[in-house]
Amino acid sequence: MSTVDPFEPYWRSCVPGAMAHYWDMVDDGYPEEQLRLHRMRFADMACGGDGEIGWFTEYDDPSGEGKLYRDAEFQDRAEFPDEFFQEVCILMKWDEYLFQREDLKPKPQK
After folding, report:
1. What does the pLDDT look like over 80-96, one tens digit per residue?
2. Minimal CA–CA distance to 45: which of 87, 93, 16, 103?
3. Per-residue confidence at 98, pLDDT binned at 50, 70, 90?
4. Which of 2, 18, 105, 109 is 20 to 30 A from 65, alpha carbon to alpha carbon?
5. In whole angstroms, what is the distance from residue 39 CA to residue 87 CA?
6. What are the CA-CA distances from residue 62 to residues 38, 66, 70, 72 (Å)?
7. Measured at the alpha carbon of residue 22, what is the angle toward residues 15 and 93, in degrees to the nearest 5?
8. d(C-alpha 67, C-alpha 79), whole Å
């Protein structure tokens, strides 16, 4: 018996916004290091992680509660499951995620 994800229509509707946010970062002149960190975080979350990657770990939480990046930015894992991040990474063709998946790695040319 398969289960239906009641949040799937919602998170699928958020994918274009997540993609647009990245392109806004590019247009706003974010340095490549920050853009790469953004891609790496999404790749980590696509694989079930918390997005705690690179120089900006233990998300800057002013409350001092030590929230993780994913919990601070995407509060509910039910609303933003791993599949949401997978969809963004695949549509954006981000190597940081694609090369972690054997089924998505480029095939060697003969």
Report:
1. 999 999 999 999 998 87
2. 87
3. confident
4. 18
5. 13
6. 21, 9, 15, 11
7. 70
8. 18
102 DSSP assignment: G
Residue that the structure tokens 């970062």 belong to: 25
**CA neighbours within 13 Å on the CB side: how many for 40?**
12
- Own/partner contacts of 2-8, CB < 8 Å, gap of 24 or more, are 5/81, 7/78, 7/79, 7/81, 8/83
* Residue 48 forms part of a structural domain: yes
- Structural domains in the chain (count): 1
In a domain, 14, yes or no: no
CA angle 70, 74, 75 (to 5 degrees): 100
- Whether 50 maps to a domain, the answer reads yes
69: closest CA among 90, 40, 96? 40
> What one-character DSSP code corresponds to residue 36?
H
